[in-house]
Structure formats: C-alpha cells, structure tokens
C-alpha cells in the first residue's frame, strides 16, 4: 500500500465520525520505484491531506517531508522528488491500518489493505 | 477535410463511438464529440466504409494509430462504380494534392483489397495494371514505404455470408493517412495472460473501454471491480496510473501464488504496477469523507449476476432479517471472515454512479457495462441516470439470444452537491432495509436462464422453470 492510498482511506465503521487518518502499524516497508510525473504530482497535491501524508511517511521511516506545505513549493524540484518518494514509492507491505476512534485494525498483507467491515460494523 | 474511414467489421455500434471519443481526446475535449459522417453511395449503414470530416491529417493519423476498430483512414483520390469512373475521378483530383506523393525519390506501396472476399494474386496484378495511368515516379518499397496507397474494390459477394448487402460495385483509391495497430491485441490476448478469472475482460473490449474513457498518460483511472486487472491493464498501456478494488480478497491479494496474481499480470507486459490495489466493498467505500474529484476516469464491468454475482457487506441472513446483528467475539476478530450478501444490480449501479459522481473530476468519464434483456416486444432499454452525468454513447454487444451488454459512456457535467449526497444516502438505507425486494426486482439471472418456451408434460403441469444444468451457458 502506497501512502497515496493511505491518504484516501478512512475507517467507515458504523458510528465512527472521524476515521481519518488511519494510524499505520508497520511490520514491513518496501520501496518500489515509480516513474516521476510532475503533472500527476501537482494534480494530487491539491487533493491530499498534507499533514496525514507527512506523519504517515515518518511512521514509515522517511522524515524528509516538512510539516506544512503550500502549492508554491511545487516549483522546487527537490520538494517534488521528496513528495513523489513519500506519496508513491514507500510501500507498506505488511502491517495494519488502525481506526483512530475505535482502535479496530484493518490488516495490510502482501501490500493489500483489507478494508472490508465485519457484520456488526456495517 | 473529408477522409475515407475504413473500419474492421466488428462491434458495429462501437466504431463511431470509439472514433469520436478519440477525436475528443486529441482535441482535449471530454464532452460528446459529434463529427460529420457521410455514407458512400449505395452503402449500407453497417458497411465498413464511411466518410468523416476531420480538422487535420494529423488528427486522422492520431485517431487511426490509437483506435482498435479503425482499419485505416485514407485521403480519397477517387471513387467510382467502374475502373473508368475511378480513372476519371483520380485524374480530376487536384495535382497539388497528388504530385508530392508521386514525386521522384519517394517510395510507395499499393495494396489491393476487397471487403467480404479474397482477391487472387492474378486479379490483384490485373488491378495494379489498371492503375498504370497514375504517374508514379517514385520507387516501390514493400517493406518500409514512405507512402501507402490502397485500392478497395468492393463488389457483390452474395448474401449468404452475414455481411451487409452490396447494392452496387464501388471502387475506392486513396492514400493511407493512418492505420491501426491491432498487434497490441495479440500482445495482450487473454490466452497469453498468466492470471485469469472467469470474467476477465477480453483485450479488444478492454482497450475499447480505455479509449471510451479517453485514457492518457498521467491520468488516474479506477476500477471498483478490478478482479484480475484486465481493464486496468489496457488503461496502464495507454499510460494511466491505475487503482483497483475488489471485495474478493483471494483475487486481489493472493491470486494463484507469488508469480501469478494481479501484479504479475502488469509485470508480464512491462506495464507500471497499479498505484493501489485494495479490498473494499463498493457498497460501503472506505474513502475519507472530504475526498472528491480525484479520479480522471472510472472504468468497470460491474457484476450483474448473470455470469458472476456481486457481493456486498452484511451477512445474508442478517439482511433477510432471519437473525439479529451478529457480534463478532473479541478473540475472533483478527481472523474473522465477514459473510457477505448478494448485491443487486440496481443497488450496484446506484452505488457506482454515486461514487463516480463524487470521485470523478469534472469532465471525467465513467465507462461501464450495463446488461439488457433482449425481448422481442420490449421497449427501448432505459439506462441509469444521474444529475451529475450526461450519457454520451450506448454501444450494444449481444451476448446470447436472451441478453446483451451495453457499454455506457458518461461524462461528469455537474458537481456533486450536498443534496445529491443526501439523496444517495437515503437510497442506500432503502436498499438495506428492503434488501430482498430489490434483489428480486433486479434478478437478471432467472430471466436469462429460464427456458425459452413453457413446456407442458403429459399431465398438463408445467415443468419447473429452474434450469437444471447451466454450466455450458456460463
């Protein structure tokens, strides 16, 4: 699971009002190279929650992202490279996503987050 | 300028739809594109030959090069009912359009074709001789010609071969401006693919869907029923970033082992891996509430319960009201496998439209299959509607005597408002509370697989309408 995915997901258990961001429990992180696409990054920058991304990347062992970011920073190649790496190249291979309200764990195995709810959570 | 467009004689309703989607793609236009079309004289509407008005030769080349159903696009130099008429037409075609392609130093190749029948090599050279009046000054190069020309001599081929009737012989001669690359279909054909599921989308259709969705590099494409990834593979081929979800974790996570799964399918073709694969339920999507307008296109083949039925969260018995809500014991939660309930087509499509309305960018496209029953006296099928979407094209593909699937292409024309979101939530609750009713309403399976005629046995009682063996239909 890449952090772009993490940035889009939330816990949708019945009754949970703020299931975002999911806390990451790391067992195994792998890095996978992805082609660098500036337009895609610029596009995504407007859509993502920066704080959640910066925090998630630190949990995954990458601490190069600033706490805050604004769109003017997209002009810097260095910033774009770091953003690219954090958003697309860090993979949670094994671990879990934890609902911030209930503590329910959504397991991540073989890089696939399992977001399906149990019967009593629907 | 008008060009002669020659299609492959396949998927007739998809041909112009694909062409116009690609015209929009290359013009940077996401809404419906209506090009001017004209049929050649005496031609049946299903004929592979059409004239189309395009703004530039470059556009014609781009469309042909990307298209799956365009065989070639030609600058027509002449046409006629006979070689005499053809010669006259070519001679009166302006020299300044012809001479640059006939000049000394150029290389060229001429092919002779006839739609609906084969021409022997003797007949071919016969026809070459008849073109001797064209002043070719260049050299023939069959391998790598600078200019390609095509003589299309279409005559009556009888009426027993299932092709559109030919009323009158028609000969076209033109310079090829662009041609399709059907080789990609061989590269991606399903039988060469490692990991397949029972409903994997065949390569030709997957590429057509990607073209309907105007996929291009840097775009983010989502398939909520990803399965083995057959649709996203086509999108990735055209350079898109891909994301997929499926409710079946065995398919999306495990596949058939470490070298035979969704990832390996992408690896097999040297395509970039999906940005994300996850297990999620389309009925209760796990996207955070503030997230919207992230996908450029959503392309999918929803489970409509004929070949494969959809599933959603919530146990079968629970939704039937047979038992009260089941509480999973705390010590069993980690490995608990939640039961799922059948997912009716109406609800599935409702969820899909709601998701797409929220998650697509303005001008983004939603491309998906919708099943229709083919009853003789049934009125024209009605297709799903949504205030955020304009339906651009409907392309039918007949699957059996009983039903066909229609590829719907919609474009997002209005933003997702709070009112729309609220209405969708109320509908979601209605589906949940009246689960059984909706399930029966949309039961396509029984309509498709019930016997054709009501059979009466000796005692006058009807046989059970339930088919005994359906394996061969699946």
Automatic annotation (TrEMBL), chain A:
Keywords: Methyltransferase, Transferase. GO terms for molecular function: methyltransferase activity; protein heterodimerization activity. CDD domains: Trm112-like. Pfam families: Trm112p. The keyword Methyltransferase applies. GO terms for biological process: rRNA (guanine-N7)-methylation; tRNA methylation. Gene3D superfamilies: 2.20.25.10. It comes from the Eukaryota. Belongs to the TRM112 family. Interacts with TRM9. This is Multifunctional methyltransferase subunit TRM112A. It comes from Sesamum alatum. The lineage of its organism: Eukaryota, Viridiplantae, Streptophyta, Embryophyta, Tracheophyta.
UniProtKB/TrEMBL annotation, chain B:
Keywords: Cytoplasm, Methyltransferase, RNA-binding, S-adenosyl-L-methionine, Transferase, tRNA processing, tRNA-binding. The keyword Cytoplasm applies. One of its GO terms (biological process) is methylation. GO terms for cellular component: cytoplasm; tRNA methyltransferase complex. Its EC number is 2.1.1.214. Residues 2-182 form the tRNA (guanine(10)-N(2))-methyltransferase TRMT11 N-terminal domain. Belongs to the class I-like SAM-binding methyltransferase superfamily. TRM11 methyltransferase family. This is tRNA (guanine(10)-N(2))-methyltransferase. It comes from Sesamum alatum.
